[in-house]
Amino acid sequence: MNRINRDTIVAIILLLLVGFFAYSSFAIKTPVFERLAPGQMGPGFWPRIILTGLAIMGLIYLFQSIVNPPPPGEKRGGLIGWYRHYKNPIWCFAVFAAFLTIIPVLGMLIAGIIFVFSLMTMLGPKDGLAVKRHVLTTFGTVGGMWFIFACLLEVQLPKGQLTSVFDEWLLVNICGIVSSIGELFADAGPSCSALMPSV
Amino acid sequence: MLANSELMTVSTMLLMVVGVVAGLIAGAIPGFTIAMAVVLVLPFTFGMTAVQGLATMIGVYVGGLSGGLMSGILTGIPGTPSSVATTFDGFPMARKGRPGLALGIGVWSSFFGGVISAVVLVLVAPQLARIGQEFQPWDYFALMAFALTVTASLAGDNMVKGLIAGFIGLLVATVGEDAVVGVPRFNFGSDAVQQGFAFLPVLIGLFAFTRLLSDVQDTKKAQENLGAHSAESVRIEHMKAAKEVLSRWGNLIRSSLIGVFTGVLPAAGSSISNILAYDQAKKYSKEPEKFGTGTIDGIVAPESANNATAGGALIMMMALGIPGDIVTAVMLGALLIHDVVPSPTFIAEQPTIAYAIFIAFFLANFIMLAMQSLTLRGFVAVTRVRMYMLASVILFYCALGVFALNNVQFDMWTLFWFGVGGFVLRSLGFPIVPIILGVVLGNIAENALAQVIAISTDPMMFLTRPWSLFFIILGLFSSFFHVYQKNRSIKRWTLGFIPAMCLFLSIPVFMMEGVFRPVLGVGLGLFGLYLIVQRARSGWKLPDAEPVMEVGDL
C-alpha cells in the first residue's frame, strides 16, 4: 500500500526546514562585549524552544499522515491539471513580482497602472467593452490612490529612474494645486488639513 | 475626561463615520471579510494618534459586523461569515415581501447586541484588568501559551496543523534582532532582514493577499457579479423592527451574551457566535419548526450575537493583552505601531486609550445605526462589483499601504513572500489565524520568558504560581476540547472530561489570594465531585446522543 501522500511530503519538508533552522540557530552568537549575565536568556534559546515544538508537531503530523492518510483529493491530471487549477494565483504572483521589479524603473504610479490593468485584463473578460472598463477603472482607482497617498498623506512614493521628471511634474502640479487650495482654506478659517491625518 | 476630549473632536468623529461606512461596504461585499477591511484601513492610521487610529478601526469593525446582513437578507449571500445564520431567516422573510422589516430587525438587533456588549465591556474589562495586574512574567507567558493553544485547537480536526501554524508564526517573529542583546537571528546575511519583518506586510501578505488570490482562483466566479439584486424599493421599517426586537428581549440578551462569551475566547469570532446563537434561539423557541422560514427570532439571534462578539474580543485585548479575534490582533499591531505595548496593565497604564476604546465602541454602534439606514442603496450597489476587479485594485492598494508604513520597498517584497507562503500553507490546509497570532504574540512571549529566566531558572514556578497553573491546565483541557466534543455521548471517557477539568482548575483557583477566589475554588472542586458522584450513580451511562449543530445542518 502506498503510504506516501501529500501530507507525508509536507511533513518531511517541514522537518527538513526545522532541521535547517535548528542548525542555523547555533550560528547565533552573542558578541564578546555582550557577555550574558547569569540568568540572562541567550538569543538562540527562544528560537530553539519554538523549533523543538515545531519538530514535535512535525513528527506527529508525519506519523498521522502515514497511519491515518487523508482521503485522496480530486484528481487534477498531473502537472498540467495542477497548473490549470492554480493558474490565476500563479499569474497574480508573477504579475505582482513584475510590478515590484519595475517600480524602481517606472515609479509607483505608472508601474501601478500597468499592474492593475494587466491583472484585470488577465483575470477578467478580454472583449473591447471590458478592456475599456478596465482602463477607466485602472486610471480612476490607481490615480485616486496615488493622489490620496502622495498629495493628501504626503507619502514619498517611489519615483522611477525613467520617469522621475514626470513623477516630479505630477507632484508639483497636482499636489501643488491641492496644497494651494488647502492654504486658501487655512487663510479663510479652520484648516481642512486638520481633518486629514498626515504621515 | 481626557479620552473624551481626544475622541470628541470633529476629525475623530468624521474618521469614525468614514470607518463605519468603510466597514459597512466591506461587510456588504460577499467574500470580503471584516478582518481584511480592518487590515486595509491600518496603513491610514499610522499618521493618526493612537486614539484616532483605534476609533477608526473600531468603526470599521462594528460597521463590518453589521454590513454583512444587507447582502445576506437581500440576496441570500452572506457578506461575511458573521452573517451566515442571518440568511437562514432574513432571506426567506425578504422573499415573502418583507425585506424592510427583515433589514430593520437585523439593524436593530445589531445595534442592541453591540450596546449590550459595550456595557459588558465597560463593566468587565476593568475588573479583569485588575486581576491582570497580579500577573507576573510566569503567568503572562502561560497566558500566551494558552491563547495560542486555544487558537490552534479551533482548527478542529486539523489541530496539529493549527499548532504547527502557531509555531511558524512564533518562528517568523524571531527573525531579526533579539530583544535582549540585539543579536541578529535568521537574517542569513541580509541587512534588510536584520531589522526583522514589519508586522503589517506580514499580516497583509498572510491574510489579505492569500484571501484575495483564493477568491480569484476560479475564473468564472471571479468574473461574476458578487450580488446582483437591487434595493431601490426597500425601506427599513425602523419603528416596527425596534419594537419587535425589544419584545424578544430574552433572545436578545441571551444571544448577545453568547456573542460576548465567544468573543472572549481567543480566535473564536463572530463567524462562530452567530451560528451558536441561532442554534440556542431555535432550541429555546416555542416554535422551532418555524426557523428557516423567515421568523424574527432567527434574525435577532445571529445579528445581536455577531455584534456582541466585538465587545468580548475587546475585553480580552484590553484586559489581558491577548487578541480575542483576528481584528483585535490587528488592533494590537496598531497599538504596537504607536509604541503602546499590550499587556494586562494596559488599562492602568494607558487609561486615555483604554477609555477612548470603550467610548468609541459605544459610539460606533450609534453611527452604524444611522449610516446603515441612510446609505442602504449605496451599499447594495457595491455588491455588484466583480471580484477580479476588486482583487486587482486591492492588491495594488496593499502594496501602496505597506510601502507607506516605513517608506521601505523591502516591505513590499515581504508582503509578496508572505502572500506566497500564506497561499501555499492555506492550500495545504494550514489555518492562517494561528500564524498571525504567533507573529503578534511571539515577541511579547519571548520578553515574558526572558523576564522569567532573569528572575528564576526554576521551571516549577510555572506550576506553583496560581495563575500560571490555571492557564496551563486550561490550555491542556482546551487542547483536547475538540476531541471531547467529537466523542461526546459516544465514548465513556468523555463523561469524566468536565468533572476532571473542574477538579483540576479548582486547585489554582483555591491557591489564589483573598477569600472569594479560594471559596470559588472549593465550589468548583465540589461541583466536579458532584458530577463524578452523579455519573458514577448512573453507572457511567452515556446519555442519548444529542445532535451537534453544524453549519451544514442549518
Summarize the structure.
Chain A is mostly helical and 199 residues long. Chain A has helices at 6-25, 45-67, 78-123, 128-152, 164-188.
The share of residues in extended strands of chain B comes to under 5%
Secondary-structure element string of chain B: HHHHHHHHEEHHHHHHHHHHHHHHHHHHH
Q: Specify the biggest β-sheet of chain A.
A: none
Q: What value does the average pLDDT of chain A take?
A: 83
Helical stretch count of chain B? Answer: 27
Major sheet description of chain B: 2 strands, antiparallel
What does this 3D model show about the protein?
The complex is a heterodimer of chains A (199) and B (554). Helices cover 70% and strands 0% of the residues of chain A. With 199 residues, chain A is mostly helical. Chain A folds into two domains: 6-67; 79-195, no CATH class. In chain A, α3 (78-123) crosses α4 and α4 (128-152) crosses α5 (164-188). The longest helix of chain A is centred in the middle third of the chain and has 46 residues, at 78-123. The model of chain A is unreliable at 189-199 (pLDDT under 50). By secondary structure, chain B is mainly α. Chain B folds into two domains: 2-158 and 166-447, no CATH class; 480-553. Chain B is 72% helix and 1% strand. Chain B has 27 helices and two strands. The longest helix of chain B has 34 residues, at 99-132. Mean pLDDT of chain B is 82; it is low at 546-554. Classes of the chains: A mainly alpha (199), B mainly alpha (554).
How is the secondary structure organized here?
The complex is a heterodimer of chains A (199) and B (554).
Chain A: H1 6-25, H2 45-67, H3 78-123, H4 128-152, H5 164-188
Chain B: H1 2-7, H2 10-28, H3 34-41, H4 50-75, H5 86-95, H6 99-132, H7 137-153, H8 159-174, E1 176-177, E2 184-185, H9 191-194, H10 199-215, H11 219-223, H12 238-247, H13 249-264, H14 270-284, H15 297-320, H16 326-337, H17 346-349, H18 351-374, H19 376-382, H20 387-406, H21 410-427, H22 433-455, H23 461-464, H24 466-479, H25 481-487, H26 497-511, H27 516-537
Antiparallel strand pairs in B: 1-2
